[in-house]
Amino acid sequence: MSTVAIPTNVRSRQLRRWRDIGLIAGLALCSGLVTLASLPGPVAGPAAPLAVIFPPWVSGEEAVARSLATGARLLRQGAVPFVVVLAPEAGMVPAARPVGAMLMLRLDGLAGCIISSEAEASRL
């Protein structure tokens, strides 16, 4: 028995390879553009409260002092002493993160987590 080699067209194999590379690159580009388009834009209206999270070894008093140094109004402390909830002045976000803060989170969608003063007064 003899083996017969099937001739392959090298040019068509290269074209298929480039086509596959182009499809993968196009898919990656489109998914990146879709991701960028889905990011939220600037929010108009009143400034949302911010949760400032400090390292756990920062005391509550020190976290409050560092947060007030940014010029924002203090709403309350979190459930743990190293979390502080701030209310930036209308139309202004604190210029910089408080010294030593690890993270700042906007609390736009978490309105139920912040107890308003009226709700807290009615609870008492």
Describe the structure.
By secondary structure, the protein is of the alpha+beta class. Strand 2 and strand 3 (83-87) form a beta hairpin. The relative contact order is 0.15. Strands 2-3-1-4 form a four-stranded antiparallel β-sheet, covered by helices on one side. It has three helices and four strands. Helices cover 36% and strands 15% of the residues. The protein folds into two domains: 9-39; 50-123. The longest helix has 29 residues, at 10-38. The model has no long low-confidence stretch (mean pLDDT 76).
* β-strand number: 4
Q: How many domain regions?
A: 2
The biggest beta sheet is recorded as: 4 strands, antiparallel
**Helix/strand order, N-terminal first:** HEHEEEH
Physical arrangement of strands within the biggest beta sheet: 2-3-1-4
Q: Could you tell me the radius of gyration in angstroms?
A: 28 Å
Helix content: 25-40%
Low-confidence stretches: none
Cα(first) to Cα(last) distance is 97 Å
The tally of helices reads 3
Shape: elongated
Q: Mean pLDDT score, rounded?
A: 76
Class computed from helices, strands and strand pairing: alpha+beta
Strand content: 5-15%
